[in-house]
Amino acid sequence: MNKLLDIVSLTKRYHNGQEEVAALSNVSLSIHEGDYCAIVGPSGAGKSTLLHIMGGLDIPTSGRVLFESEDIYRMSDAQRARWRNKAVGFVFQFYHLIEELSVEENILLTAKCEARKTSLKKIQELLKYLNLESRKNFFPSQLSGGEKQKVAIARALMNEPRIVFCDEPTGNLDKDSQDRVVNLLEELNRQKRKTIVLVTHNLELAKRAKRTILIKSGEVVNNPHGGLA
């Protein structure tokens, strides 16, 4: 598999009053194209911080994030925003859907500047794949939690990203909906070869990933693929 993302000696520190807190300390790992990787660890370990930095949402104190050998933090803010829109999809715990917009409109919001007809065709394909065709004119308040997360996944896939980052995507769902969402992520990885990086506190869900990376106190404790291998 081709190496897609390298994390090299990544450190992130915050200031809490006069106290300096290290959210991440010298983290190095790699993500290969086609990976399905689960990042696990206790609350406050730095999982979400790592995910947000990998996805270009938060700036590290030091270290590098290389996407196909290009350091995304040497890009300008505008360049990094374009990279995120083109190469990355995000799925969060709380969906972040706009209540006043329909399912179709929520997904269309993330479409790159292209012909509306092309965008709508792509949305129809996604809705069919996710079994949401009958819900396209529904509003978020009319959907179950699992359906809302499926819409969030469709939105993340709209621009055909190279990598999808999922931050506790099942944390707000009941057991049945959790299974449906994880089954969908596995299917996307297996059938559509999407590279997926999943942060979760749920070890049972993490076991279903191809790789598991354990983080404690901001440090990688267990990385089966070994650093930058």
Describe the protein:
This protein is an alpha/beta fold and 229 residues long. It has a single domain (35-60, 86-222), classed as Rossmann fold (3-Layer(aba) Sandwich), CATH 3.40.50. The chain has helices at 47-54, 77-87, 103-108, 116-129, 145-157, 175-191, 203-206; strands at residues 3-16, 19-32, 36-40, 62-67, 70-71, 88-92, 163-167, 195-199, 211-216, 219-222. A hairpin with a 2-residue loop joins strand 4 and strand 5. Helix 5 (145-157) packs parallel to helix 6.
The dominant shape is: globular
Individual helix count: 7
Helix content: 25-40%
Low-confidence stretches: 225-229
Category by helix and strand content: alpha/beta
Q: How many β-strand stretches?
A: 10
Count the domains: 1
Average pLDDT confidence is 89
What is the CA–CA distance across the termini? 11 Å
Strand content: 25-35%
* CATH architecture assignment: 3-Layer(aba) Sandwich
CATH superfamily: P-loop containing nucleotide triphosphate hydrolases
Strand numbers in spatial order across the main sheet: 6-7-8-3-9-10
* Helix and strand sequence: EEEHEEHEHHHEHEHEE
What is the CATH C-level name? Alpha Beta
The main sheet comes to: 6 strands, mixed
Using only CA atoms, what is the Rg? 18 Å
CATH fold assignment: Rossmann fold
